[in-house]
Design a protein that fits this description.
The chain is α/β, with parallel strands linked by helices. Helix content is 32%, strand content 21%. The protein has a ten-stranded mixed sheet, sandwiched between helices. The chain has a six-stranded mixed sheet with strand order 16-17-21-18-19-20, with helices on both faces. Helix 8 packs across helix 9, helix 11 crosses helix 12 and helix 16 crosses helix 17.
């Protein structure tokens, strides 16, 4: 669903692994190497029991044949599992071997290492991500034969056909929010299917084929692939411009969300966060232009929004009495004349917003409000979202996927609460030359919340270098920061500076997450 970079996520999500990998999506493992140790738990098997069930068949993909190029990548491996569980014949290839490849083979999905035209079944649909280049020999051979080529989001939509489809979209927060929905609805006994762009704690995976008619998908706007979905419920956390290398302007970015909302099925629901002006404009447009149903939520009352000239739905939820702790957050949600208590097991004001959006989705699905709120309290987070990775001699390391200024602000606010009297040290790897160039000033402002920042070279992902665009564009605006192009040296320098009580973070959507073991080893062994 995405062409961003998350080399540790095993699911098809908003910022997927395929750009991070060699060629067209080399295999990846789950956060903290979980895939290598525990494997995925998908295909209708609960997190408690483990194991993998046999393919069910009988689904919309039953009897069809698919070949996935880059099958070991984060997004593609999930699509492969879901199609296989529906009864499709699935094969695929990838540039390198990986734990995901081993897992797929264990399911009975042939997965080749290396791309070779002879590996492509002549009658299969070909599934690709945006990261797969036209020069890929398998893709070129399939096109020469006239085989159908579809995007992985289209394949996921096929696997979910006929289900109550819930699409979670937005520039930020969609992985956490879709993970919240998956965990909470599972806790209510609904057993939804889901495809989330991160490891959902308690499931050891980002995908699950459940027994109910509910399907939750993280919907990616970066390459417009979210327009392949026709959801019953669409939850939009925010519409803050990003991916301007693809869209060119704020107006074009927002129009994509207007087009996405227009795909909601008749009688469906759009849920938007009124705290975000772009999402509020989307709700207004959908309500007035399409006559669609909208529910909104946020920290401001309808009267406050009216006074500010900001739109809200008549069906509006207000978050009050907010309390933030190091690893928890609570609030009271006022909705339809009812007070609903939220007690989250994760911190961050942004997560109170995410949870309230998820709450409204649950209510729309028929879950009693208080029950849905209690179920949201069981959510323990997703991989690489302010994820605690280790502690040595009172020095702690967290890993976060933040790669946009607003995401960094949210992560650092949470870090400051968690650090208490300690310092917050950050190793940041910018993601994309275009994003660095477009948002350098905002990145610099966001990092004012940290005590020390080490910047390393930009992770290029799908882009070619841009002359004059380096991490120094940000570093030069952050007093006391250090630009260390070599990421390993930057990691070791941050590790050496940290003192007991300090909190260190690796931040970014690229390969910076691989520096966590380097930092921990430095603390343990001084190497």
């Amino acid at each position: 669903m995405s062409n961003e970079t998350n080399p540790t996520n095993p699911a098809d999500g908003a910022e997927s692994a395929n750009d991070a990998q060699p060629a067209e999506g080399a295999g990846v493992q789950s956060a903290n190497g979980a895939a290598a140790e525990t494997g995925h738990r998908v295909n209708g098997v609960s997190a408690e029991t483990g194991g993998v069930s046999a393919p069910r068949g009988g689904g919309p993909a039953d009897g069809a044949q698919y070949h996935l190029i880059g099958i070991g990548g984060a997004g593609m491996s999930v699509v492969a599992e879901l199609l296989h569980a529906q009864g499709a014949t699935v094969t695929g290839s990838d540039a390198v071997d990986s734990p995901n490849i081993h897992h797929l083979r264990a399911l009975g999905i042939p997965s080749f290492i290396g791309h070779n035209a002879q590996q492509v079944p002549p009658h299969a649909r070909i599934v690709v991500s945006t990261a797969v280049r036209d020069t890929n020999p398998e893709l070129a051979a399939a096109r020469a034969r006239g085989q159908e080529v579809i995007h992985r989001s289209q394949a996921l939509a096929i696997a979910a056909e006929g289900m109550d489809f819930i699409a979670v979209a937005g520039a930020h927060g969609k992985t956490t929010t879709s993970g919240m929905l998956a965990a909470a609805l599972s806790a209510t006994g609904a057993d939804p299917s889901f495809a989330v762009g991160g490891v959902v704690t308690g499931f050891d995976t980002g995908a699950h084929l459940g027994g109910s008619n509910i399907f939750i998908a993280e919907a990616d706007e970066s390459d417009k692939s979210f327009l392949n979905y026709s959801p019953r419920i669409a939850l939009v956390t925010n519409v803050e411009p990003d991916h301007l290398d693809n869209y060119g302007s704020r107006e074009a970015f927002e129009q994509a969300f207007v087009d996405f909302a227009a795909k909601i099925v008749d009688g469906g629901l759009l849920v938007v966060c009124s705290d975000d002006e772009g999402a509020a404009r989307l709700g207004k447009n959908y309500s007035e232009t399409h006559g669609g149903r909208v529910a909104s939520y946020g920290t401001k009352t309808p009267a406050m929004l009216d006074e500010l000239g900001l739109w809200h739905a008549p069906d509006h939820a207000v978050i009050t009495k907010r309390k933030l702790d190091a690893s928890a957050a609570s609030a009271t949600v006022l909705y339809r004349d009812e007070e609903i208590s939220l007690q989250l097991a994760i911190g961050g004001e942004h997560n109170l917003l995410n949870a309230t959006g998820a709450l409204l989705v649950g209510i729309e699905l028929g879950v009693e409000p208080q029950e849905m709120a209690r179920a949201l309290g069981t959510f323990r987070g997703t991989g690489r979202r302010f994820e605690f990775r280790g502690e040595v001699d009172g020095k702690r390391i967290f890993d976060d996927y933040a790669h946009h200024p607003s995401e960094i602000v949210a992560a650092l606010k949470q870090a400051r609460i968690e650090a208490g009297d300690g310092h917050v040290l950050v190793l940041f790897q910018p993601h994309l030359f275009s994003r660095t160039q477009n948002f350098a000033d905002r990145f610099a402002q966001a990092f004012q919340l940290a005590d020390q920042v080490y910047f390393t070279d930009i992770f290029a992902a799908r882009e070619d270098p841009v002359p004059g665009v380096t991490s120094a564009l940000i570093a030069d605006q952050v007093p006391g920061s250090k630009f260390v192009p070599d990421m390993v040296q930057a990691a070791k320098a941050m590790a050496d500076q940290a003192q007991p009580g300090d909190l260190c973070m690796t931040v970014g959507a690229g390969s910076v997450t691989t520096m966590v073991p380097v930092i921990l080893d430095r603390w343990k062994n001084g190497e």
